[in-house]
Amino acid sequence: MSVKPPTALPTVLRAVRAVQTILAIGSAVIIVVSTVADVVLRYGFGRPIHGAYDIVECLLVLLVFNGLSLVFLDRGHIVIDLVDHLCGPRLQRALSRFGDLASVAALGLMLWAMIDPAMQAYGYGDRKIELGLKVWIVWAFAFAGTAGATLCAVFMAWVGERGR
C-alpha cells in the first residue's frame, strides 16, 4: 500500500522538520568526515583524532533520533504488505491507522524507557571517556529528537486519510 505524506504541515511541524533535518544531515556529515580523518591520520601519520569515538557515538544519537521525524512525516517507514492485497480499501485504511497508533505508542514507550537511564546519568555525573562530555547532555538530545518524532507521529495519526 503506497501512502503519500500530507501536503500542508502546520508551522510548528515545518519548523521541527527543518531543525531536525539540519541536525541529522549535519551529524551525518561530521560522522563521515571525522571517521575518514581519524583513519587517515591514525594509519597514515600515527596521529589519531583524540575523542573521535566519542564524537561519532554522540553524533549517532543526533542522527538517529532527529531522523525519526523525517521518516514519519514522509511516511517513509518500512511497510510489509502481507494482507493488504486480500483486504478491501476500508480495511487497508484501518490497518494503516493501526500502524500510526502503534508508532505513537512505541515512541511513547521509548520516551518513558529513556527517563531512568537519563536520570541516572545526570545523578551520577557520568561523562564520556575521551571527551569528558556529560552523558546527560546526550540524553537531552535523544529526548528532544524523540519528542519531535512523537509530535510528528501524532500529527500523522491525527490526519489519517485526510493527509494521504
Describe this structure in words.
The chain has 164 residues and is an all-alpha fold. The chain has one domain (11-163). Helix content is 72%, strand content 0%. It has four helices and no strands. The longest helix has 36 residues, at 89-124. The chain is elongated and about 65 Å long. 21% of the residues are buried. The mean pLDDT is 89.
Domain module tally: 1
Helix count from the secondary structure assignment:
4
Profile the largest sheet.
none
- The quaternary organization reads as single chain
Radius of gyration: 19 Å
What structural class is derived from the secondary structure elements?
mainly alpha
pLDDT averaged residue by residue: 89
Helix and strand pattern: HHHH
Question: pLDDT under 50 segments (min length 5)?
Answer: none
Number of strands: 0
Task: Kindly estimate the percentage of residues that lie in beta strands according to DSSP.
Answer: under 5%
**Apparent shape:** elongated
Helix content: over 70%
Ends distance: 12 Å
What is the topological layout?
Layout lengths: L10 H35 L6 H22 L15 H36 L10 H25 L5
Short description:
The protein is mainly alpha-helical and 164 residues long.
Labels describing this entry:
164 residues, mainly alpha, 4 helices
